[in-house]
Design a protein that fits this description.
Rossmann fold; elongated; 62% helix; alpha/beta; four-stranded antiparallel beta sheet; ABC transporter transmembrane region fold; six-stranded mixed beta sheet
């Protein structure tokens, strides 16, 4: 899809308004040329000179007002389109399943929504000017044909030689720009590696040097591609401009040998040709801006198509069965999951898994690294869509139709959790309750809750996990998922978590699925699920359901 296709798709009446206003502006601009030419050809008395001046001023004012309107409306159209695209992409990211989204290139997404979007945004002024110039070019060409048909045909023939050469060279520059976009994404990813792995980089000077060298290499490649692309566009522009001056020279020095023109007519033809060069150069600038914007539009369209593929939809029932919030048990029946990499190969998998979790039960999940613990809880929560088997809440099978309601059963603190500065989704929370929980979890004085957001997120890992726990508890969902929550906690909060918080949640009817390595607190759990190589190796019962844990 090109930018013009996008404009046709996204706009209707506004597009016609832009063309009409641009045409009026172009006609007014052309009238200036006609007035000047008429003034050169004929002399005027004082009274007629004032009338001509008034006509000149009126034409210029009409040109200025309409051209400004064209610029504003074109910019408005493009910014509205970009707004819709950004919101559409945001919504599609929200609707995508986690596994598909994890395969999306983050650098590509950020590049497209920032630097590439800028090409579209900045093209507005150039394209509006080019549109006005194109219309003006048509009128100026008709005026040239009126003055001298041979001169008009002569110029058209010369342009017939220049335009194909310009077009072929433009394709090469556009291809170079597409490669530049890809390199921008790679450079962004290299810098992100430094930021995300900063701790590891600081602890190893050799690793730090290698990471920086990789960033330098990617940045140098980007620089070379940008310079090459800019040079190709610049040379193409200069070549086109050279063709214009060649046309002007040919009209001045070659045309008189083939066409008989008196001096006055030759002066008017030359002035018209010189006038035409301005609109022609703006049209060329517009074509180059359009080609850059087309690359951005094509890449954004491709991203949207990728996200569309990531949004797996099934026909929804006319009256979908609601997911029972007061369920008795969650069941996984022969559930399997395969994670595919970008090439479609299986990167890792779990299953088949059979597991039943009763309401109010505390279940610990244990196993070595790579045993499938985190993958299991992502499948259980519906973040990963099971490749086989089925998930049931009591007797309700969870399909894509019920998945949004099913998600609402869970509050989670994952090992790679993210802290939002605001309590999104908790619109009527009592600030005093939030502050009380901050005190309870030892965060008073570290951060506060003011004007609907936390005042400080620059906390230690353990403190950030406690803040994430507060957010999860405020959500007050039926099922809690905790992935290695106690790993960074000091003994006081580790003991509170296992011996007080989890039993308290269980007594309140909450169901807890916790990934842990803490053997000493196994008595807290009703059952311990031990995983090995993506399957459940065994399930140990540590206390009967409903019994209080022993200290």
């Amino acid at each position: 899809m090109t930018l013009l296709d996008l404009i046709r798709k996204e706009t209707e009446g506004t597009r016609r308004d832009i063309v009409v206003v641009a045409a009026i502006s172009a006609v007014a601009n052309g009238a200036l040329l006609a007035i000047v030419n008429a003034s050169v050809q004929r002399g005027y008395g004082a009274g007629e000179s004032l009338r001509t001046l008034a006509l000149f001023v009126i034409s210029f004012a009409l040109y200025a007002v309409c051209f400004r309107r064209t610029l504003f409306k074109t910019t408005t159209v493009l910014e509205d389109i970009l707004l819709r695209i950004r919101l559409r992409i945001t919504e599609k990211i929200r609707e995508a399943d986690l596994a598909s989204l994890e395969r999306t290139n983050e650098g590509e997404v950020f590049t497209l929504l920032t630097s590439q979007a800028r090409f579209i945004s900045e093209s507005g002024t150039i394209l509006a000017t080019a549109l006005q110039s194109l219309i003006l070019l048509v009128f100026a060409s008709l005026y040239l044909a009126y003055l001298s048909l041979p001169a008009f045909l002569f110029c058209v023939a010369l342009m017939g030689l220049v335009v194909p050469l310009y077009t072929s060279r433009l394709k090469g520059a556009t291809g170079s720009m597409e490669r530049t976009v890809g390199q921008e994404a790679e450079t962004f990813n290299a810098i992100r590696h430094l930021l995300d792995g900063f701790k590891e980089v600081k602890l190893n000077r050799t690793r730090a040097a290698d990471v920086v060298d990789d960033i330098r290499e990617q940045a140098m490649r980007l620089r070379e591609l940008k310079l090459r692309t800019a040079d190709m566009f610049n040379m193409n522009y200069i070549a086109a401009y050279g063709g214009f001056y060649a046309m002007m020279g040919a009209v001045m020095f070659v045309l008189p040998h083939f066409v008989s023109l008196d001096h006055a007519d030759l002066v008017k033809v030359m002035m018209t040709v010189m006038f035409i060069i301005g609109p022609l150069s703006m049209v060329i600038s517009g074509v180059q801006a359009l080609s850059k914007a087309n690359v951005a539009v094509a890449n954004m369209t491709r991203l949207e198509e990728q996200l569309d593929q990531a949004i797996r939809t099934l026909p929804r029932a006319a009256s979908p069965v609601p997911v029972p919030v007061d369920f008795r048990r969650l069941r996984l029946e022969a559930v399997g999951f395969r994670y595919l990499d970008r090439d479609g190969a299986t990167a890792f998998s779990i299953g088949p898994v059979d597991l039943e979790i009763r309401r109010g039960e505390i279940v610990f999940v244990m196993g070595g690294n790579g045993s499938g613990k985190t993958t299991l809880i992502k499948v259980l929560t519906g973040l990963y869509l099971a490749s086989s088997g089925r998930i049931l809440v009591d007797d309700v099978e969870i399909t894509l139709a019920e998945l949004p309601a099913y998600h609402e059963l869970f509050s989670a603190v994952f090992s790679d959790f993210y802290l939002f500065p605001k309590l999104y989704g908790l619109r009527d929370v009592d600030p005093d309750r939030v502050r009380a929980m901050l005190r309870k979890f030892g965060l008073a004085g570290k951060t506060d809750y003011v004007d609907g957001q936390f005042t400080n997120l620059d906390l230690s890992t353990g403190q950030r996990k406690r803040l994430a726990m507060i957010v999860a508890l405020l959500e007050d969902r039926p099922v809690y998922i905790f992935d290695e929550w106690a790993a960074e906690q000091d003994p006081q909060f580790r003991r509170y978590y296992y011996e007080e918080l989890l039993p308290e949640l269980s007594r309140a009817g909450k169901t807890i699925l916790a990934v842990t390595h803490d053997d000493r607190y196994m008595a807290t759990a009703h059952r311990v699920v031990k995983m090995e190589l993506g399957v459940i190796d065994r399930i140990d019962e540590h206390r009967r359901f409903g019994e209080e844990p022993t200290g």
